[in-house]
Design goal:
The protein is of the alpha/beta class. It is built from 8 helices and 12 strands. It has one domain: Rossmann fold.
């Protein structure tokens, strides 16, 4: 009988793991925005162009390949996005505004859309979007940024509204249903985004009822938010690739709901709270009859296993 593998060394708690820190930060950013409407506050991991990379990744690998198993068709309007620790909400606003297509992209889309009206403009995600954060001040700021950025676009209209939902919600303490898991997303979201939220929670000194640091239960919280076949993108700079695999995958011996490694993508290093890192993880939830990158399909009497699993893309 083998002993249970130990987890990576934990990070020392710091102010960045407290709600007070983030409330104070967004209070300052709200004040700055009131003086200068063009000041949208902190763009996460801006020194490494992390936002650009994730936008390109969502529009490329995730949209073109990883969401095909959902069977929703190849339209961005069909997918719902949930942003954990949304901060100023800028990332969702950027996805809503869309990226301009090249002439080649437009030609390909016109060919694919032959016989029906093109329902998208550029690489615009127009499906349901929700940003959540445990800081009320974050949500207030995100709503202001979204209003300023998208107000001029409302006149263009959309069958699936332009409005982005911003909700105060604590992933570690509150039940996701019905506040976050509701409507078409009652069984999970197609894409779940984490831009340093795991990092921040890892710096919290809070413990759960069993005396464990609360971040140790984060994996299960995120998994519950991703629908079968969906994708979760987690960006971290506090943990190495090996450590993230330990926290989100372990040794791969777990039964039932679990995560699996999918692929690696090179990523430039950046810093967070004085700590350098360069890791990005994408979790892909898969289930019966769905393609597995590593061909780890387990046969049962009824075919493929029904237990929810997930894939992880490590970017470093």
């Amino acid at each position: 009988m083998t002993s249970k593998a130990s987890k990576p060394s934990q990070l020392d708690p710091s102010a960045l793991g407290t709600k007070e820190y983030w409330d104070n930060l967004y209070n300052r950013e709200i004040s700055n925005h009131a003086l200068d409407a063009t000041d949208v506050g902190t763009i996460w991991f801006d020194d490494s162009s992390a936002e650009d990379k994730v936008v390109d990744f969502l529009n490329g690998e995730v949209f073109e390949k990883d969401l095909l198993g959902l069977g929703k068709g190849k339209r961005r309007r069909d997918y719902g996005l949930l942003d954990l620790g949304t901060g100023n909400g800028h990332f969702l606003v950027r996805l809503r505004e869309g990226e301009e297509d090249s002439d080649e992209d437009e030609a390909e889309e016109e060919e694919e859309e032959e016989g029906r009206e093109n329902e998208e403009t550029g690489k615009k995600w127009v499906g349901r979007m929700m940003g959540v954060d445990y800081s009320e001040r974050s949500i207030e700021f995100a709503k202001r940024i979204a209003k300023d950025k998208l107000e001029s676009r409302e006149e263009q209209g959309s069958e699936q509204g332009n409005e982005i939902e911003f909700i105060t919600w604590d992933i570690m303490k509150e039940d996701p249903s019905p506040k976050v898991l509701n409507g078409e997303q009652a069984k999970g979201w197609d894409i779940v985004l984490d831009k340093g939220t795991f990092d921040a929670i890892s710096l919290s000194e809070e413990v759960d009822a069993n005396g464990k640091r609360i971040f140790e239960g984060y994996k299960e919280k995120v998994l519950a938010l991703v629908r079968t076949g969906g994708v979760a993108v987690v960006t971290s700079c506090n943990w190495t690739e090996e450590e993230l695999i330990e926290w989100f995958v372990g040794k791969g011996e777990e039964q039932g709901e679990r995560f699996e490694v999918l692929r690696k993508i090179e990523y430039r290093s950046f810093s967070f709270g004085g700590v350098k890192g360069q890791t990005k993880v994408v979790l892909r939830a898969t289930a019966r009859g769905v393609w597995f990158k590593h061909e780890r399909r387990l046969q049962t009497r009824r075919g493929y296993r029904l237990a929810l699993t997930a894939k992880i893309i490590i970017e470093d």
